[in-house]
Amino acid sequence: MGSTEAKAYLASPEVVAASALHGRITGPGWYNQPKGWSGVVRGEGDGIKEKDRMITADEALEKVTGQLDSLVEEGEKEILGSESVITGDGQLTEVLPGFPERVEGEIVFYDADNINTDGIYPGKYTYQDDVTTEKMAEVCISNYDNAFASVAREGDILVAGFDFGCGSSREQAATAILAKKIPLVIAGSFGSIFSRNSINNALMGVEVPRLVQRLREIFSGVKPKDIQQDLTEPSQNRESLDSPPPAALVVPQHEKLLTRRTVWKLVWDIRRSKVDIQEGEKGPQWSQKVGELPPNVQEIIACGGLEKWVKKQIEGSK
User: Fold this and answer.
1) In this predicted model, which residue has the larger pLDDT, 169 or 303?
2) CA distance 26 to 19
3) 54 SS3 class
4) pLDDT digits (tens, 9 = 90+) for 229-255
5) Is 30 helix (H, G, I), strand (E, B) or coil?
6) Alpha helices in the chain (DSSP H)
7) Which of 154, 184, 167 is nearest to 121 (CA)?
8) CB atoms within 10 A of CB 294
9) Res 82 pLDDT > 80
10) Nearest Cα to 141, choosing from 104, 85, 195, 182?
């Protein structure tokens, strides 16, 4: 990543091979075709079955995906033993035994769009292997708001703006939020890589654009387009090379709060795929249908992430 003190580098297979042979970082130089070489002998000595030798990469990926889907489907049948139930609420999502049917907590609101992964977890910690869980919790979202660590509490539900988690694919953006003991993130929308990383690391996320808009109506007091402001990249973030400048923040002109405790309560009913909002002690109540959390995703989250889920599948197949 450009640091002379780094212990690991990203490189092409050619550079890796050449560096291993020379004992230092170097390139492969000019390529000379070996004498007597006439072409690649496919499948020779690789242990691949004859019927699988000439399949394309797409066909191979489709085959592996099908095998994984079959494993998940079989596991669901063994665990669930029944189909989803149809009631007046529509089709209910089957909830795996032991998985919580509801997630609830107080909303802590971070009113900003395009929060990139470098803002969620600072780049200078990304390649440090000795960062403790406590430190991860301490620096979570610190590139945007140093006060976040003291404002957010265990069990809170974090609500942010749109395109939350855009930028690079560092998994610590999800694990740092979990280190803060926040079980659920709600946003107007998520960056696609962050959304998948969240599942892989057992962090739950739901898109509820209406909730973001409602919070802005109450706590911002003015339209977002009227209060956008330019920001500079935090000085602590100079060591990170993979993130764009921070997005403009949406905050009331009379109160510069980046992270706000709202006293609003949220309940996510996983079985009915809806959220119930209580706007303060005496405020209105309302509900909103949300996307389903299917059983196969529940299973990954219950296992503690995709890596542990895969290990469980491998051990179960022995």
Assistant:
1) 303
2) 5
3) coil
4) 444 445 555 445 455 555 554 444 435
5) coil
6) 13-22, 57-80, 117-120, 123-126, 133-139, 148-151, 172-179, 192-200, 209-219, 295-303, 306-317
7) 167
8) 14
9) no
10) 182
